[in-house]
Design a protein that fits this description.
Largest sheet: 4 strands, antiparallel
CATH architecture: 6 Propeller
Order of helices and strands: EEEEEEEEEEEEEHEEEEEEEEEEEH
Helix content: under 10%
Shape: globular
CATH class: Mainly Beta
Strand order of the largest sheet: 3-2-1-24
Length: about 350
Amino acid sequence: MSSCPLPLGDDEALVVLGSENWNAADRHLGRGRIRSAQVLTTDGVTQLRHLDSLGARGLRDIVFVDDDTVVITTGHALFRFRIRSGTVDNLMPDHVSDIHELALRGRTILFANTAMDEAIEVDVDSGAVTRRGLEAFRHSKSQAINHQRPLGGAIPVGPKQEWDDHFHANQYVDGHGDSALVVVHHVGGFRPMRAVGKRLVGHGDGGVLDLTNGDAHGLGLRAPHSLRRLADGGYVVFDSGRGEGVVLDGQFAPMRRFDVGGWGRGCAVVDDERWFVGLSALRKRYNSGGESSLNSVVSIDPESGKRTADWVLDDVEQIWSVSVVQRSVAELMGFLTARVA
């Protein structure tokens, strides 16, 4: 009998990365208990303890480039691992911080430089860097978000702003055709009074910027994450602040919504029958005491939008990344050599 709680095939491995909560007020486990990388197969769970020490808080995303190369980010470093030689190099460009998610285009890593309003491309082999700024999308009244002040800086009390984060861009990825897309929390840049007004009426300001044609798709999302291409030419994205997924057509028109039951971030679109979505537990400062929330990965039936199974993860405070790879790839990378559960 399989010990796997999710609908995985015998030849598949599900890789999940996570971390401590960034805000000290939300932490409760302690860094020593964090298991940053866990792998699920039909045989059970493997915790990749040799990766636990990476990053001040843990790990955020991983890209499997080829059978000898893996790239992992902690959010504040970008590590290239060469499996056969055992070498590790930090490809992190200067003036980059708060990477959320990685994408792969050939042998080029794509990511949003959240702190500095940029879309970044890094060549896996040479380390060459290409930067694409988002200034053209800024509204004239937008300002950098101050995460240390109330309402992102709308109330001018607290430390001064250090970053140039107007959009809170958290993903840079290729779309359908030749589109190059950036997922943002604020489509025209952060405007304090607009943000406060939208929060009061329960609306969001998030959407997608297209760097190829200059279009800005305001979708009214509250803290969107993890845009994924679909085989029919559309997309799915997670409206994390509402605990929902949104299916979009190829022109970014919302087609339908479905409940995922929490803060969705990290998604593996495996096939027409299985999507795996990471859910992060409700942060302590937002929990009134009567709510229950767990870190988990859930499987979603794409047609109905219904949850079909879930896997609860211990020893982590938030989920960042969910990927499915061939089990042979995970074994080659040494990810299944030290099973602990």
